[in-house]
TrEMBL record:
Record-given protein name: Putative LRR receptor-like serine/threonine-protein kinase
GO CC annotation, single: membrane
GO molecular function, one term: kinase activity
Taxonomic superkingdom: Eukaryota
Keywords from the UniProt entry: Kinase, Receptor, Transferase
Originating organism: Prunus yedoensis var. nudiflora
Length: 130
């Protein structure tokens, strides 16, 4: 408030928005008190516990889709699940990089958008979420 618009501030907001969308949590939730924050929770979960931190609705929708397509080979399902988890990790890493505490440490918005497009293209190429 009272300051000029600055791309480093905008990229911070973009990063927090990504974290909110993919975790289903708000940075103002009561669970974040003291030094605990949405960003810190995501950092602690990456990469091994990404499924624990993403919005359960995202995981549920994938699992429901997997059940509907039970004619796919098990190897196919495993490959798709790995691609989805890798994509979630990458997206959350972008959110973390964009929302770094110090503005000079934040990811440039053009790099963030390019990375999101790269993830989308990988998912499309693998016919995931067309």
């Amino acid at each position: 408030m009272g300051h000029e618009v600055w791309t480093h501030g905008d990229v911070y907001s973009y990063g927090i928005l990504l974290l909110e969308m993919f975790t289903g949590k708000r940075p103002t939730d009561n669970m974040f008190q003291g030094t605990s924050s949405l960003r810190n929770i995501v950092i602690a979960a990456l990469p091994e516990q990404v499924v624990e931190v993403v919005d359960p609705v995202l995981v549920q929708e994938y699992e429901e889709g997997e059940m509907r397509s039970n004619n796919r080979l098990t190897e196919d399902r495993a490959r798709i699940r790995i691609k989805i988890e890798d994509s979630l990790i990458s997206i959350l890493e972008i959110g973390v990089a964009c929302s770094a505490e110090l503005p000079r440490e934040r990811l440039d918005i053009s790099d963030a958008v390019a990375e999101i497009c790269r993830i989308r293209n990988i998912l499309r190429a693998n016919r995931i979420f067309e």
